[in-house]
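quick q for whoever's on today - can somebody do inverse folding on this one?? i tried earlier but teh output was garbage lol. tokens:
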């Protein structure tokens, strides 16, 4: 959308433009930003892996901390964004401005709190996250910089989601993509050129996040978007309740992702640093594969929110089924490619360590078998979260990394050894799929009933107008 578009013009586009074309136009920038973000996450893994196997494992250890930071940022960002899109669909722009400011400044404050506590207890923190004695020094060098940048990271997640849910995915992409590309450039300079090791990778990440934050903050005030202003900061339970209702599914998903990563590190630990490094690499690879599909789904969410608020349930249903079909095909294609070229993909990161290559290759193949099922799980979660069905969305969000993965990673390695570590995620994916199917079908039936009721109401309204 162009920079000088008005709020009324944006509303018309979001509620009247053809659904498939609208989703694709919003999805392209989010897919680009997600892919670039995943690419720079993989770049961290790639460059750090060149230092040593223990250094590679340190990046895996840091995943869980970054997931906590992301959890809070996404909780506030997704909750604020969901609520804002529905309010804009109802044409309540002033109140939406209060929600945006409240979400942004709350995230900034919580980021400062987390950074302070984390830096004070840094030594204990790395071992809590699953570091071994050989990995701990590398992990501390990495994590201390991540903590310093936590406030900007969390605030950036909020700004990104607020922009997306207003239908301004392009402006969100500019901030995210610029920071990601900068990180890829800075990684080798800091790690090898300045000989900073894992700390250099983290410092590159934080500098990039600050630049991204500044661009996102500027973009929040153009293109018909809500400008973030402190005077609109309204820390009331009425607003926080709606933010939490829309954001808690993201919190559960991200927090459980963090906990599951810690559990994975501890379960892989008895098999050596190579096992931790291999599973960290496989995790990054699948995050990259999922990023395109999640970016596509993020093109769906503002369309869903605007139209649900405007009572256009027919467009919500059409958008959901379009996204499910498209994402299933994409993930199936990625899974087939990953299965066919497993060894080559793993060797990109750590080809000189044959043990990492062997462990990672088998884990990657097993993951590919169930990977396409996640299209239904994630799209269902996005639908439920966007229309305000917090409890159902939280259950679906918790299923893949929590309800099923944590028991699997605690039980299966005891029964099958290292194979149990490698099959835990595929097993949880299957169970998450079967859990989400009835929840989704119940919600879709409810939307169809609302669509029918809306048609009757519109019909009676037209009849009344005709008689006057």
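ok took a stab at it. sequence:
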């Amino acid at each position: 959308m162009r920079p000088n578009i008005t709020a009324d013009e944006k509303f018309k586009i979001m509620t009247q433009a053809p659904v498939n074309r609208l989703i694709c136009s919003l999805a392209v920038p989010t897919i680009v930003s997600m892919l670039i973000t995943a690419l720079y996450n993989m770049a961290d893994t790639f460059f750090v892996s060149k230092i040593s196997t223990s250094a590679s494992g340190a990046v895996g250890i840091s995943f869980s901390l970054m997931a906590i930071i992301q959890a809070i940022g996404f909780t506030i960002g997704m909750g604020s964004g969901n609520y804002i899109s529905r309010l804009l669909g109802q044409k309540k722009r002033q109140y939406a401005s209060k929600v945006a400011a409240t979400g942004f400044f709350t995230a900034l404050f919580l980021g400062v709190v987390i950074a302070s506590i984390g830096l004070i207890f840094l030594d204990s923190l790395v071992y809590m996250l699953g570091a071994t004695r050989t990995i701990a020094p590398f992990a501390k060098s990495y994590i201390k910089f991540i903590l310093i940048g936590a406030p900007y990271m969390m605030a950036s997640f909020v700004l990104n989601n607020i922009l997306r849910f207003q239908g301004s995915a392009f402006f969100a992409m500019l901030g995210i993509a610029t920071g990601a590309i900068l990180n890829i450039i800075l990684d080798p300079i800091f790690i090898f050129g300045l000989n900073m090791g894992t700390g250099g990778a983290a410092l590159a990440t934080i500098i990039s996040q600050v630049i991204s934050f500044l661009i996102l903050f500027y973009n929040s005030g153009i293109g018909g978007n809500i400008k973030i202003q402190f005077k609109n900061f309204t820390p009331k339970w009425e607003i926080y309740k709606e933010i939490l209702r829309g954001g808690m599914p993201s919190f559960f998903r991200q927090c459980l992702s963090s906990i599951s990563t810690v559990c994975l590190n501890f379960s892989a630990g008895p098999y050596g640093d190579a096992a931790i490094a291999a599973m960290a690499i496989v995790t990054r690879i699948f995050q990259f594969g999922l990023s395109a599909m999640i970016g596509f789904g993020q093109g769906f969410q503002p369309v869903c929110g605007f139209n649900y608020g405007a009572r256009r349930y027919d467009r919500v249903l059409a958008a959901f089924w379009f996204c499910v079909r498209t994402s299933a095909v994409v993930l199936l294609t990625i899974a087939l490619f990953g299965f066919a070229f497993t060894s080559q993909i793993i060797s990109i990161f750590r080809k000189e360590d044959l043990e990492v290559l062997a462990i990672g290759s088998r884990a990657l193949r097993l993951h590919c078998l169930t990977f396409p099922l996640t299209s239904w799980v994630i799209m269902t979660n996005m639908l439920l979260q966007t229309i305000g069905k917090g409890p159902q969305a939280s259950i679906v969000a918790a299923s893949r990394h929590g309800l099923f993965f944590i028991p699997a990673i605690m039980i299966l390695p005891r029964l099958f050894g290292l194979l149990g570590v490698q099959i835990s995620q595929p097993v949880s994916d299957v169970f998450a799929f079967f859990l989400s199917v009835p929840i989704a079908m119940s919600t879709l039936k409810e939307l169809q009933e609302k669509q029918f009721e809306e048609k009757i109401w519109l019909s009676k309204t037209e009849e009344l107008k005709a008689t006057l």
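fwiw The chain has a mean pLDDT of 82. also The chain has one domain: 18-462. so keep that in mind when u check it
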